Amino acid sequence: MKGMSLFRALITLFLISCGSNSEDRKMNSWLKTPGADEVRINDSFWTPKIDRNREVTIPYVFSQCEATGRIDNFAVAGGLKEGKHTGERYNDSDVFKVIEGAYYSLMETPDPALRRYADSLVTLIAAAQEDDGYLYTTRTIDPVNMAPGAGRERWIDERVSHELYNVGHMYEAAVAHYHATGSDTFLNVALKNAALVEKEFGWGRREIAPGHQEIEIGLIKLYGVTGEKRWLDLAQFFIDVRGRGGDYVRHPDDSRFRVYNDSVYLQMHKPVLEQEEAVGHAVRGAYMYTAMADLSEATGDDRYLEASKRIWDDVTGGKIYITGGIGSKEYGEAFGEYFELPNMTAYTETCASVANVFWCHRLYRATGESKYIDVLERTLYNGLISGIGFDGCHFFYPNPLESDGSFERAGWFDCSCCPVNVARFMPAMKQYIYASSEDQISINLFISSEATFELNSGIVGISQQTEYPWSGRVEMKVIPASENQRFGIRIRIPSWTGDEPFAGGLYRYITPQTGQTVVEINGEKGGYEEKDGFMIIDRKWKKGDLIVLLLPVEPRFIVARDEVTADSGRVALGVGPIVYCLEEADNGKVREIKVDPDTSPEYIFERDNMGGTGLVLFNAVMADGSEKQVKAIPYYSWANRGRGEMIVWMKTK
After folding, report:
1. CA 43 to each of CA 50, 105, 350, 449, 464: distance values in angstroms, whole numbers, following the listed order
2. Same fold, 6-432 and 436-509+516-550
3. Could you give the angle at which helices 6-17 and 282-299 cross, rounded to 10 degrees?
């Protein structure tokens, strides 16, 4: 399988490994994601961010893992160095995540120095593994004096120990390593550990679910690479065993979330197929809802998919921010009640945005419905990339929608899951731009790029050129393998071109849209039908055929439902998929600014501002009663110029 791209290989092995009914279902229903070697981004918005991740963020995160002892823990556990365990019980996972990001990056851009360094870490991890496959550095180093929450013995405090969570991220890193290098060195470490987990857990053995979901995704990826159904069965066990026991009493030395209702916090209050609401820890939940969709794809059992979709509807109906962020409660990093969406204390963890993108993408591939990409796009352009600063080495853990000036980016955290999650996400984000079926290509995101697809009719190339999100003009050149090759092209109609930013009815525009969405094929308008939020153009194509999409990128004010008391009497501002905010660096104190929703904002693009950005100018009433013009910037860009007030939801006059 060497040389086969990660995503194509996963799809191929899913088809090979499942029974005929499942195979027919996947081939007919689930959209395929193009392989890593089938898409190349050359985009003015995203390419600099991906390059910064490779050149700055990944090396920086590795250096922090060294400085904080995360990497030394593996050397000490492997007997290669003297010392004690340093840090938290879940720190192993940070190393696994940034290694995954490094190998994704290597698949995109060769870097011999990065390859040597990442390979050296794989050697350390292999050395730290115990003879039976166990891998958990804090227990291996000193089983008596372990990090708080690790548990007195293996597995007995699994709902808090993160033993399974850690290795789930190792499985994902090992799969990335395998596809980037063709070597099974790391994969064998992962499989040895998975075999031990299989021996310990299952029906009639330890009937315990992990406290922090993640291993389910990792196991299904191992299944995709190896074709061994045992890993799929184990993933299904970990999903099905949830909700079958009573409340769990948290280990007394883990005080972070004490007195929280553990069964709800851990999504163990009901079996997953009976769950209808998003509750508990937002990252854990979104990882689980993602794995449920993965399980449906791999097995053909749609019950898990339907449950995941029900919960997604619950989130978009009343538990998601205008930025796409999820998890409103600081206490427990958790989903709140319906319409509980505070702005100053909004938690909206960066990791939760990463997980939300994973989840939305799975549901989109299962259904082909644009509403899932609408939320994916909004999260991607706002709540996710807000988590990393322009310098590539300062980060947000929570992402509030209002600040009194005390909030700022940090270079690292004791719990640094967010920086390493961004590091692994960025080089793999191109997988979301396109999808395909046997006879159709779907254009989901508008990002300058080139891609190739294998359809029943033959090879097809697509080239996108655009200045999106700052401009709504998108040019798509079609390059079929032969003249008059027939296939369909689906182009997403973004929800922000309509009456609401995304489906669910939680938010709506109050500024009328003046422009229209227009599609031209070789200079002629029309020639398409609409279905599931996509324009579908089905015809015989010739080389050089040009599709031009014109989207109305213009400032529009947004209101929330009346039940969202935090946003009552307030408006937010959006331009296309981008949410805007007011920051003190541009306007002075902003939290008491009042705006007239009937005003007509001016949208401008400044190429030399923050790497090139769209800005919005409008008149507002300041706290002292004076009126002046204020400047709104994209939400993702705030807090890059020092401390200061910031606000997304502005008071109205």
Report:
1. 10, 17, 23, 7, 9
2. no
3. 50
3-class DSSP state of 538:
strand
pLDDT of amino acid 605: 93
Residue with tokens 């029900």: 310
Task: Measure Cα distances from 591 to 199, 245, 489, 580, 653 in Å.
Answer: 57, 47, 46, 14, 13
Class of residue 67 by CB neighbours under 10 A (exposed 0-12, middle 13-18, buried 19+):
exposed
Q: Look-up: residue for tokens 């409660």?
A: 329
DSSP state for residue 520 in the 8-state scheme: E
pLDDT at 7 over 80: no
> Using the 8-state DSSP alphabet, how is residue 566 labeled?
G
Domain boundaries along the sequence of the chain: 6-432, 436-509+516-550, 555-652
Which residue(s) pair with 388 in the sheet?
A: 395
Q: Cα separation of 585 and 623, whole Å?
A: 16
Interval 144-200: pLDDT, tens: 999 999 999 999 988 899 999 999 999 999 999 999 999 999 999 999 999 999 999
Q: Is 113 exposed, middle or buried (0-12, 13-18, 19+ CB in 10 A)?
A: exposed
Determine the CATH number of domain 436-509+516-550: 2.60.420
Nearest to 612, CA basis, from 634, 586, 585, 581: 634
Beta bridge partners of 545: 478
Q: Shortest CA distance to 372 belongs to which of 421, 311, 427?
A: 311
Distance, CA of 537 to CA of 622 (rounded, Å)? 50
In CATH terms, 6-432 corresponds, of 3.40.50, 1.10.1740, 1.50.10, 1.10.10, to 1.50.10
Q: At what angle do helices 112-128 and 163-181 cross, to 10 degrees?
A: 140
* Rounded-to-integer distance, Cα 636 and Cα 311, Å: 27
Structure tokens, 548: 């031009």
Is residue 174 within 8 A of residue 190, CB to CB? The reply is yes
The backbone torsions φ and ψ at residue 314, rounded to the nearest 5 degrees and listed phi first, read -65, -40
3-class state of residue 575 by DSSP: strand
Q: Return d(Cα 191, Cα 214) in angstroms, integer.
A: 16
Q: What is the mean pLDDT of residues 8-23?
A: 33
Amino acid code (one letter) for 52: R
- φ, ψ dihedrals at 326, nearest 5°: -130, 155
Q: Which residues pair with 620 in a beta bridge?
A: 595, 628
